[in-house]
Fold each of these.
Amino acid sequence: MDIGLGFVFFFVAKWTDLTTAAIWGAVAGLALVVVQQFVKKVDLLGGLALFGIVMMIISAIYAFVLQDEYLIQMRTTVMGLFGATLYLLDGVILKGRYLGERTSRYMFMPDIVPQRLALALGAMSIIMALLNWGVVRLVSKDIWLYYTTFGDFFVAVILFSVAIKWVVVPGYDAARAEDTDPPQGVRAEQ
């Protein structure tokens, strides 16, 4: 569904303009939410589809308010830097106890260190935002559209693969479990 919603944006943008594409993407996402109410056997909104729909609605509002193709292309940079700021603040100040911890719950991998995850996602968001900025500044809208629909996905996968090597610390879950156990010789209250 995530990819299908991306294609809606892509094809409408190819035929019309970015504001119309953003609005149609949000409408398609909302239609998917309605369809999910009637289709119970298949989870259409699993994974990151629901998050993607929320982001498409925010993008549509952003596009509708600004009505400027260049600024619409820059929304990935703006939203990426905003997300990076939140993750980096969580990683540095809160040691990953808020966003890092919550995001790690969606990753079915053992031994993820929430602080490292928050810092890694913040760094990834900065890199992705700067790449989008560069593509918007250096190439045409059509090439940017191909990049934002297809290319940045592969960049994100590569960056995430590199980041996960740093985020996963073997034995982290076991060490954290030991920290919550009562000291030896002390019986837990029942």
Amino acid sequence: MRTFIGKQQIGNDLTDNSYFSDGYRFHDAFHLSYAAVLGWSPVMRSILKRKRKSNPLIDEVEDGGRARVIEEGISALVFTYAKDHGFLEGVSAIDYQLLKTIKNMTSHLEVSQCSLGDWEKAIMMGYEVWRLLEKYREGTVVVDLDARSITYQIEKSNEISMQIQPAYAG
């Protein structure tokens, strides 16, 4: 899977990194939903080269390696949960204990101000887009940071592209 903004590829080519095809290659939808709904994604900040270098402490703590690994860990943790729950299709609520674990993992980061409900919304929206990417294997993911939304549009191009509106600064 390759991700583009316009004609420029961002990030690396992705595979499922698994012995079995499970669609994890489309997991950037989760990072994008965290950016859209929570205003938080150190992974996307890094990929888009929007780390906050002007403040060394924020760059280290909020945009640094530990924060990125935590976000990737959350994506993997939730993916395992989602796999056991039909990839959240038709699911109306996420397990409280899972949400609480995520909240605890991020308690020292700026995203700690977000509620369990915010996390649940970000996860549900991310999986809605993920399911469509997995089904069609192509399309455009549109992130609107002002509206705090992420949507999917089918596009016949054999690649995944992104539109981030307005320019991702957070």
Amino acid sequence: MHHHHGRAWGGGPRILFRGGFPNRQELLERLENHQRDLEQQLADIADVIAHLRDRPGDPQPQQ
């Protein structure tokens, strides 16, 4: 079995540190941008959930 140690699958926080470790100001800017992206994704998901809940009469999926 072959293991890859230290690899961040799915992007993870390491994507914030491409090109070496940033200084404090760069790190703060990157983290704030990342936080805004996550907040927007969360808002988009909340909109889809609300939309799906508000649709009456849709048949439930069969299992």
Amino acid sequence: MEKKGLGKRINEVRKDRGLIAEKLSEMCNINAAYLRQIECGVKIPSLPVFIDLCNALRVSPDYLLQDELTENEISQIREIELLWKETSPDRQELVLAMIKAALEYRGQ
């Protein structure tokens, strides 16, 4: 696992949320120095700390780990969701009909 990629994402999200390191570390019940080590890529957080960071930052684990993960089902579903939100209602109906037709065809 690329420690710097994970730490960099945590740092970017923290700043984007307007949090200082001390506030985020307090929200996660960890030492601010430890958080800085995570953000610099010196340390990898334990699973409980990682979950606390995700919850405190209101971000999904796959977002923070996307540089380390290969394409997976969740990332594909999120991509579909983004495309869906950017599509007009008329096109959404067309896409839904196409998906249903494709699934029915595969079922034969």
